[in-house]
Design a protein that fits this description.
The complex is a heterodimer of chains A (259) and B (327). In chain A, α2 runs parallel beside α6, α4 runs antiparallel to α6 and α4 packs across α11. With 259 residues, chain A is mainly alpha-helical. Helix content of chain A is 79%, strand content 0%. Chain B is 37% helix and 25% strand. Chain B contains 13 helices and 14 strands. In chain B, the strands form three sheets. In chain B, strands 6-7-8-3-9-10 form a six-stranded mixed beta sheet, sandwiched between helices. The two termini of chain B are 32 Å apart. Classes of the chains: A mainly alpha (259), B alpha/beta (327). At the A-B interface, α1 and α5 of A face α3, β6 and α4 of B.
């Protein structure tokens, strides 16, 4: 990779991070909304741990994967909305007139999302630990958890970027959030899959890749080092990132349209 | 190709059609010489911005060819982009970055070294009068400041050709004049070729060495502003009676001196016949009919008159009439 591309990537990444951290309207909901739902659910569903076969005595520990994954969904919207705004305002045209490489733009755009994912993981983990959560996989496990969450944010960010590049509209990107939220709740986020009694729900949760993201993250918190759950979690997050980034790269090529 | 041509713009039969059959640009031929300021004048929806997008390589033409700085806009897009700077319609800036951050980002993307980025950034911000505001975020900038920053960004890599798409739209007269000065200085002192689109007659008139008038995707007239106006030749007279009921009578008197043209409500106007008519004759004729006149103006031909003569419509409001949104 040439030094010019690296410079472009670094400059666009810096812009992306500055943009994210200078917008309280992105940071505050990205931190507050998942925490609020986490708090309400943990307070109201705590007795779920009494269900025979429930994998832990602490519902707070069980549910900590909730804000971590939900926060990543915000990333999809944040990355997509920012990119769509660049298209709407003509900023993308400004960038297109420079020798900027599309890969630099894409990487730059997603670095902000990954940085937001990092901030979210640290904040949510800290809040969890304050409320008594013990990370069974220890400090190293917490680091792996942060990496997995950032990879998830990268994947969802890529999906958001695809939507932005297809539609060129921030509203369209934001419109996808409820759909993502529904798919999020149709996973094993609130109950382990084997304890979901409703057949169709359990089937949907089994085929829903978000379940495996959740279970990978959750395993580090409540189980310790569970290679199988972790592998599936990383496979899903990596696959999501691969699809998101490749799709976004293709969409960007079409969107740039320069000769 | 000569060095002069290599630094200019040439287009032949440039066409751009959009989905749904809309032809935004319908066969444009033009040539802009090195160091020239070329004004591309027309209402909203005439095809100005689409032409700029094609010439700056951001939109491939459906038909036709063009060379910018000696490079083909389709086959050599990268070389074209390296030779041009552009401030497109609406200053496309990031509201969350400062002016300085914008210039540094642009300089980095253009491949300037770290040292050059700082030097060039400071120099350009000073040139457009934004040194003091350099550390402020764009959301706090006025429209004029944004436009000046936009111009600075277009100049980061010292391009030989500059495209400015409606650079003064929405600006107050003071900001507009400041931008005109800067554009004029770029062409005069630095020899930059400027392709400027505008819907403002006075802007095209004051700034351009030559003007191309575009209407519905076609260039309908092209020459120096003076030559275009001279081509229309005849001045017009507009009279406003003190009593609005006399407009009809005033109109009948004026018709002796030329053909009627549109006038504001409460007034009458004619384009004077060729030769021999002067304002005194008009005053005498009005006086003879005992008409009390509160205002009388002799107007030399303007670019609006040229537009009217070439298209049959006034430039003001022509875009709305066409009902088109420009791509």
């Amino acid at each position: 990779m040439s030094s010019m591309v690296l410079t472009q990537m670094a400059s666009l990444s810096r812009r992306s991070v500055l943009r994210v951290f200078r917008q309280p309207e992105i940071i505050v909901p990205a931190l507050l909304f998942p925490l609020l739902i986490f708090g309400f659910q943990a307070a109201g569903l705590g007795s779920a741990t009494k269900i025979p076969g429930f994998p832990t005595n602490s519902y707070v520990s069980f549910l900590l994967a909730f804000p971590l994954v939900q926060g990543s969904l915000f990333s999809a919207v944040a990355a997509g909305t920012d990119l769509a705004r660049d298209i709407e305002t003509g900023f993308l045209n400004r960038l297109s007139l420079t020798p900027m490489r599309p890969t630099a733009l894409l990487a730059g755009s997603l670095v902000g999302v990954v940085a937001l994912g990092f901030l979210q993981s640290v904040v949510f983990l800290t809040v969890g630990i304050i409320f008594g959560v013990r990370i069974e996989a220890g400090f190293l496990g917490a680091l792996v958890l942060i990496v997995l969450t950032m990879l998830t944010a990268l994947g969802f960010g890529g999906i958001g970027a695809i939507l932005a590049l297809w539609t060129g509209s921030g509203e369209a990107v934001q419109g996808i959030f409820p759909l993502l939220l529904v798919s999020f709740f149709l996973s094993s986020i609130l109950l382990p899959r084997d304890l979901i009694q409703t057949d169709w729900f359990r089937t949907v949760a089994t085929y829903n890749p978000i379940s495996y993201l959740v279970e990978g993250i959750r395993s580090l918190i409540i189980t310790g080092w569970d290679g199988h759950a972790l592998l599936l979690g990383f496979l899903v997050a990596g696959g999501l990132a691969l699809v998101g980034i490749s799709g976004a790269a293709l969409s960007l090529k079409g969107r740039l349209g320069r000769t | 190709m000569t060095a002069s041509k290599a630094r200019g713009i040439e287009a032949e039969g440039l066409v751009r059609k959009f989905k749904g059959g809309v032809t935004a640009v319908d066969g444009i031929d033009l040539r802009v010489e090195e160091g020239e300021i070329y004004g591309f004048l027309g209402p909203n929806g005439a095809g100005k911005s689409t032409t700029v997008l094609m010439l700056t390589t951001l939109l491939p033409p459906t038909e036709g060819t063009a060379r910018v700085a000696g490079y083909d806009i389709v086959k050599e897009g990268q070389k074209v982009r390296a030779s041009i700077g552009a401030a497109l319609q609406e200053a496309a800036l990031d509201p969350f970055l400062t002016g300085l951050e914008h210039v540094r980002l642009q300089a980095a993307l253009q491949g300037l070294s770290r040292g050059e980025r700082k030097k060039r950034g400071d120099e350009l911000l000073e040139r457009v009068g934004l040194s003091e505001a350099a550390g402020r975020k764009i959301r706090g900038y006025s429209g004029g400041m944004k436009r000046r920053l936009d111009l600075a960004l277009a100049l980061v890599h010292s391009p030989r050709i500059l495209f400015l798409d409606e650079p003064t739209t929405g600006l107050d007269p003071q900001s507009r004049a400041a931008l005109w000065d800067e554009v004029g200085r770029l062409a005069r002192e630095d020899g930059v070729t400027v392709f400027l689109t505008t819907q403002y007659l006075e802007e095209a008139d004051a700034l351009s060495d030559r003007v191309g008038i575009i209407d519905r995707g076609r260039i309908v007239a092209e020459d120096t502003p003076a030559a275009l106006k001279a081509g229309i030749g005849r001045p017009s007279v507009e009279a406003t009676p003190a009593d609005r009921d006399d407009v009809g009578a005033v109109k009948r008197v004026l018709e002796q001196f030329g053909e009627e043209i549109s006038a504001p409500s409460g007034s009458a106007a004619v384009r004077l016949k060729s030769g021999g008519v002067n304002l005194t004759d008009v005053v005498r004729a009005l006086d003879k009919k005992d008409l009390n006149i509160s205002g009388l103006e002799l107007n030399e031909p303007s670019l609006d008159d040229v537009y009217l003569a070439k298209t049959g419509r006034k430039l003001e409001g022509a875009g709305e009439e066409a009902g088109e949104d420009e791509a």
